[in-house]
Each structure stands twice: as C-alpha cells, then as structure tokens.
Amino acid sequence: MFEKLRYITSGESHGRALVCTIDGIPSDLPVSETDIGKDLARRQKGHGRGGRMKIETDSAQILSGVRHGMTLGSPIALLIENRDWANWEEIMNPDTKYARRAAKLEKGAPVTRPRPGHADLSGALKYGHRDLRNVLERSSARETAARVAVGAVARKFLSEFGIHVGSYVTEIGGIKSAVDGTNVSSLFKTAETSSVRCADKKAEQKIINKIDKAMKEGDTLGGVFEVIVTGVPAGLGSYSQWDRRLNAKLAYSLMSIQAIKGVEVGLGFGVSKTPGSGVMDEIYYSKSAPRSAPAAGGFYRKTNNAGGIEGGVSNGMPIVVRAAMKPIPTLRSPLSSVDINTKKKFKAAYERSDVCAVPAASVIGEAVTAIAIADSFLDKFGGDSMEEIKRNYKGYLKQLERF
Ligand SMILES: Cc1cc2nc3c(=O)[nH]c(=O)nc-3n(C[C@H](O)[C@H](O)[C@H](O)COP(=O)(O)O)c2cc1C
C-alpha cells in the first residue's frame, strides 16, 4: 500500500526511546529537528491530557539521512528520547542483569490484570506473555510520537509543492462545533489557538466544561476530528488497483491510530441518507484555475461532498477526512475484568491517564494523512532529488493546462 515512502517505528512507552526509519524521501529537501519538534509539541497539547504530558517534552534527534540541514536521499533515522526512562530504567532495561533488581520493586511486579479497551488481554493471548507490561508498553499511543515525527518530514516535503495539511476537532463528548469551512486557513488558525483544537468558540467552552465534568466523575470522552489537505493536484492515487486508491490509503492510515474506530471521506456516512442529487459534485470549468482546485486543469466543483477523491483519485478539490476516536479506556471509576493468573474477577485499578486525547489525535491524524499523500505524490512524480520531482510536477501541471 505504501511503496514509495516507507517507514517503521519501534520503542516501548517507558523504554529508552522511540526510533523510526523513513525510506523514500528524496535528496535536497530541507529538514531540521526544529521542524519536527514543532509537530511533536502540538501532539502533546490539549485540555484533558494526563500527567505524562507534563513529564515528556518531546524532541527528535536526526541520526542519519540529513547533512547540514538537507536530506541525502538515504534513509532518515529519528530518535525521540523518553524522558520518563529515568524512572523506568530498571523495569524496562534490555539487559538481563536488571531483572532481579526490577523484581524487587513494586512497579516491577508482573501486570496480570488486563484493562478492558486495551490490547492487554488479546496481546497476551497472542504472544503468550504472562506479564501484561510486555504488551501495554508497545500498544500504548506513546508510539504515535514517532509517527508524528515521520509526518513532520512528509509535511515538509508536501509544503514544497504548496500542499498544506491541517486539522481541527469537530466534536467531543457529543458536543459539536458549528464552523464555516469556506476559509480553511482561518479555521486552522483558530483551532491552533484552542486548547481543544475547536474553531467554534461557543462549542469550545462547552467542550472544556464537559471534559472537566468527565474528569471529576472519573470518566473519559471521545470525539471526532477533521483533516483537510489543500493544494493537492488532481491525479494522486488510482482506480486501477485496490491498494492504490487514495481514499483506501487514507482510511487505513487513520484507522491505524490507537482508539480510532471510524473514518469518513467527504460527506462520509451522510451519503447513505442523502439522495444522489445532493451527493454528487457537479463539474464546472474556468480557464483561470479557481483557488479551491488549483491543479485540476481549470475543472472545479462548487461542492465537495466527495472530499476531493473520486474513484480513488484526487480530483483537485481539498481532501477532507474525518475520524472518530473512542473515549480513553482507562477510567477512574473502574471496569470489571479477570486476573490472568487467578482467573478471579477484579475492578481495574486506576493509573494516571488522559481524560480526552481527541486534540492530540487530530495532530496525529494530520501526520498519517501527510504520509499517505506524500506516498501517493511520490508514486506519481517520483524521482530521487527534489529538483527531479519538481521538474516532473511542473511538466504535469503544464499537461493539465493543455488538457
Ligand atoms: C493520543 C492518544 C492518547 C491516548 N492516551 C491514553 C491514555 O492516557 N490512557 C489510555 O488508557 N488510553 C489512551 N489512549 C487510547 C489507547 O492507546 C487505545 O485505546 C488502546 O491502545 C487500545 O487500542 P484500540 O482502542 O485501537 O483498540 C490514547 C490514544 C491516543 C491516540
């Protein structure tokens, strides 16, 4: 599914560090640790986050693939240290000599009580782990910091072609924001200043109150965010093979984020309730390219129910995707579960946890979307250097003009 821009992440939540390797970024793209750090900081914000966010202030170190600020065309390796490592060094150390010391510590005791809504039990059954820490350390959403770092590089690549990826929260705990989506850049600016990434000030306050209430009651909240990509040319993705369809790649990417349970493209589930006349985006033409569809040979739509993708191919309109996040599974009011050793019922113990992480998920959604769009862009205009890709892209734009 991702052939041109491949990446892999590793690292445990309380391990030494998160690491990722990105392959397929061309040479001569300016990339800096500061660029990546900005997105990492955005992922850590949000009203309703737990104590961990106060411990971690993430920054990425570029270990390879970049020299004097420019990519080399070789794989890029990034490292994000876990600041909490100091508190977990004995428990999580790869070296066997720490095992005995860890066993003497209270928090080194095997975790045997699976939390509902987490990978704890299914992961233990699958890998045969009798200490659930061996599952939860990797299934944790801490891993998404690595993906946000990869996304920052993809975003940098896309920005060279005037493609911008932004997001905002549309709903938390059933409170919906009413926003006018016509001015996307002001929408993003307002969302960026909001502690819940909400662009509707009235809804913002209600959402904050609802999160505070959930916090007091020991409960948690989910929600929905929307990612919009502007400046995407017509022609990314393909109808010719199932795994090249751009909507499929986006859905896969968003569904791969921890706690995401639903994805919509454009009108999404709304298509099931609307007659065909209200769903299809009629086609118009103007010699001068409209701002809404800058690279579609003068063809554009007055509506964007398709979310910028038809037949698995971008049509030049903004790409619009939404994702629904379930409430955080760790609750202060405990849920029933069964100890894997004793097989006896218990009420899950509370651990420091987020109450709502939808604003953070929205930033992660941007990252995985940027990666999917960058992969499709490289698939269409691929080359080894930025110069080559820019030449290919310019040639294609000329071809669209002549169409
Ligand atoms: C940004 C983000 C932060 C999260 N924070 C927490 C948390 O603090 N506590 C928790 O129990 N789950 C948290 N989750 C949710 C779990 O990671 C997720 O529900 C769990 O891994 C099970 O995966 P699944 O929901 O995809 O089945 C978070 C998810 C995301 C995306």
What does this structure look like?
- With 403 residues, the protein is α+β, with helices and mostly antiparallel strands.
- The chain is 34% helix and 20% strand.
- It has 12 helices and 18 strands.
- The strands form 6 sheets. The protein has a 5-stranded antiparallel β-sheet. It has a 4-stranded antiparallel β-sheet with strand order 1-2-7-4.
- The longest helix has 24 residues.
- The model has no long low-confidence stretch (mean pLDDT 95).
- The chain binds flavin mononucleotide.
- The site of flavin mononucleotide has 21 residues, from helix 11.
Q: What key phrases describe this protein's structure?
A:
alpha+beta, 5-stranded antiparallel beta sheet, 4-stranded antiparallel beta sheet, 34% helix
The biggest beta sheet is recorded as: 5 strands, antiparallel
Report the radius of gyration as a whole number of Å.
22 Å
Choose one word for the global shape: globular
> From the helix content, strand content and strand pairing, which structural class follows?
alpha+beta
Mean pLDDT: 95
Strand content: 15-25%
Strand order within the widest beta sheet: 9-8-10-16-11
Low-pLDDT windows of residues = none
- Name the bound molecules: flavin mononucleotide
* Count of alpha/pi helices: 12
Instruction: Quote the distance from N terminus to C terminus.
Output: 29 Å
- Series of secondary-structure elements, N-terminal to C-terminal: EEEHHEEEEHHHHHEEHHEHEEEEEEEEHH
Number of strands: 18
Percentage of residues in helical conformation? 25-40%
